Amino acid sequence: MLLEIKNLRKDYQRGKQIFSAVNNVSFTMNKDEFVCIMGKSGSGKTTLLNMIAGLLTPTQGKIMLNNTNLFELDDQQVSAFRNQQIGYIPQGSSLLPNLTALENIRLPFYLTKRQNQQCLSYAQSLLEKAKVSYLQDAYPANMSGGEMRRIAILRSLICQPQIIIADEPTSDLDDESAADIMQLLSDIHHQGTALLIVTHDNDVASYSQKIMKMSAGRLTDK
Ligand SMILES: Nc1ncnc2c1ncn2[C@@H]1O[C@H](COP(=O)(O)OP(=O)(O)O)[C@@H](O)[C@H]1O
Ligand SMILES: [Mg+2]
């Protein structure tokens, strides 16, 4: 089992009212799976992903990734664990504007103590595989939305994670760019990386093997 989520809950306060943005969610994922979670805006998808990525502490519940309980680690250990095991593609544009595509892709690698030379050739091979070598030295301001998303996906791959987590990877893209992005993510899945994607787009969901539905913080099989 790659991922095991058990009775996960996140409470927030709005005014005097406490509500569960994620409400008692449980599910598991194998290491070769491509899972999609669908749900309307505000249903708790981003909150759920942020907890799985170790960016947000749950109110209650357990997350086991590769037999490690995320919340038994201290801050520094969670960061290192995330860096090595999880490729996270946040919603919207997340590239650093003052870095080129190549530098953005390599950034997560600089945060660890691995050999940089090896990382350079790997980053270049990722650009090549995704057919965007021409973007190597371009800055985000000079890229299209689809190109930026593509670079963010390659950045998530640089540390060769066990799982890629993507938050609405095709939002704000035209149909053609969205299809390109899904093709790239499917290729990554076929090369052996597990994928967990949240979306409200039916076309995106059609690429996955398993679809679950999030509604008012609750997760159900579709
Ligand atoms: N930091 C926060 N404080 C209070 N409420 C929040 C916070 N983050 C998200 N929420 C609320 O939690 C609910 C789920 O949000 P979110 O996980 O972003 O949903 P989705 O990604 O499905 O659109 C929403 O009602 C949102 O307003
Ligand atoms: Mg969201």
Short description:
With 222 residues, this protein is α/β, with parallel strands linked by helices. Helix content is 34%, strand content 28%.
Explain this structure to me?
The model has no long low-confidence stretch (mean pLDDT 92). The protein contains seven helices and ten strands. The chain has a single domain (3-221), classed as P-loop containing nucleotide triphosphate hydrolases (Rossmann fold, 3-Layer(aba) Sandwich). The chain has helices at residues 45-52, 75-85, 101-110, 116-129, 145-157, 175-190, 202-205, and strands spanning 3-14, 17-29, 34-38, 60-65, 68-69, 86-89, 163-167, 194-199, 210-215, 218-221. Helix 3 (101-110) packs across helix 4, helix 3 runs parallel beside helix 5 (145-157) and helix 5 packs parallel to helix 6 (175-190). The protein is an alpha/beta fold and 222 residues long.
Mean pLDDT: 92
Q: Calculate Rg over CA atoms.
A: 17 Å
Q: Overall 3D geometry? A: globular
Total number of helices: 7
Biggest beta-sheet profile: 6 strands, mixed
Detail the topology: elements first, then pairings.
Layout: E1 3-14, E2 17-29, E3 34-38, H1 45-52, E4 60-65, E5 68-69, H2 75-85, E6 86-89, H3 101-110, H4 116-129, H5 145-157, E7 163-167, H6 175-190, E8 194-199, H7 202-205, E9 210-215, E10 218-221
Helix pairs in contact: 3-4, 3-5, 5-6
